[in-house]
Design goal:
Blueprint: E1 2-5, E2 17-20, H1 33-36, E3 41-44, H2 57-77, E4 82-88, H3 111-130, E5 134-139, E6 141-143, H4 152-161, E7 166-168, E8 175-180, H5 181-193, E9 198-202, E10 207-209, H6 210-220, E11 228-230, H7 247-253, H8 261-273
Parallel strand pairs: 1-2, 3-4, 4-5, 5-9, 6-8, 7-11
Antiparallel strand pairs: 8-10
Length: about 280
């Protein structure tokens, strides 16, 4: 197994070798079998992450759009059997039709969403014109040990462990669908074997409001002295409801999330409480 990374990381499995690349230099992604050996499946999980309108759209398009097209070309040249692309359900923009299905209109809100959609379109082009077995997974909100702490769930957990207040913006009614990393891994493996390539939503068992998320974390955190209340600030995504349909993924991939949100959240809180910040997403699937 070859893992392409931007920065060197500790490898625990001797069967895994590292190849350093940079998605911001897509011209250097001319990977050959001489470098990596025979290739069966390519899992493209890399991206520049962003959710801000002020970020450089050119840089995002280069790393998330152009680089994806180059990796697809490399996969075709190496006769890969399948290509799995990690996209995001946010490529649709604001949810307008519920539940959100794969046929939802595509109206990206931020440059990041646009760049990920361009990656999806590159995948569809390769699937239709080159016959490559390509699957794009529109993942909802991932969580698990090793996840960066710049999103609401890890921020709430760290504040709860410190008994600091948990405040939601607006009314707290905005919902998100959180999916555990082990379910994402399971979806990727199923997609690599699927005989029905295309675009699929990948999410958790249910959605939860920001108000209920704060209360659940408060209840699951040992010794938590946090107060749960309004922040007194508006939520710019107050009316966003991420109720996502997984029926296509179930029918086409045989995917159904196995980790309940309460179970996964309890494990995540315990891991953070015990100081597990390894940043390595390894779970039994």
């Amino acid at each position: 197994m070859v893992c392409m990374v931007r920065r060197k990381v500790q490898v625990l499995d001797p069967a895994v070798s590292l190849l350093q690349v940079d998605l911001l230099q897509p011209d250097l992604l001319e990977i050959t079998t001489a470098q990596v050996g025979s290739v069966d499946v390519v899992f493209h999980m890399g991206a520049i992450m962003s959710q801000h309108a002020t970020d450089d759209p050119g840089q995002l398009m280069l790393a998330n759009g152009v680089a994806t097209a180059r990796l697809l070309r490399a996969a075709i040249k190496m006769s890969a059997r399948a290509f799995v692309y990690a996209s995001g359900v946010t490529v649709i923009g604001k949810p307008e039709q519920l539940p959100v299905r794969e046929t939802h209109p595509l109206r990206p809100t931020y440059p990041y969403h646009l760049s990920k959609l361009c990656g999806e379109l590159a995948c569809e082009q390769a699937r239709r014109t080159e016959g490559l077995n390509v699957t794009s997974l529109r993942i909802t909100s991932p969580y698990g040990l090793g996840k960066a702490d710049n999103s609401v769930l890890p921020r709430f957990v760290k504040r709860a462990l410190a008994s600091e207040s948990l405040n939601w913006f607006g009314t707290g009614k905005r919902t998100q669908n959180f999916v555990h990393v082990s379910d994402i891994v399971r979806a990727c493996l199923k997609a690599s074997e699927a005989q029905a390539p295309g675009v699929y939503n990948i999410g958790g068992q249910e959605s939860i409001s920001m108000k209920n998320l704060a209360r659940l974390i408060q209840n699951l955190t040992p010794g938590c002295g946090s107060k749960v209340c309004e922040a007194g600030k508006p939520d710019p995504q107050e009316d966003h409801n991420w109720e996502v349909s997984l029926s296509k993924a179930y029918d086409g991939l045989g995917y159904a999330p196995k980790v309940s949100f309460e179970q996964g959240l309890r494990e995540y809180i315990e891991g953070i409480r015990c100081g597990d910040t390894s940043g390595v997403w390894f779970y039994q699937v």
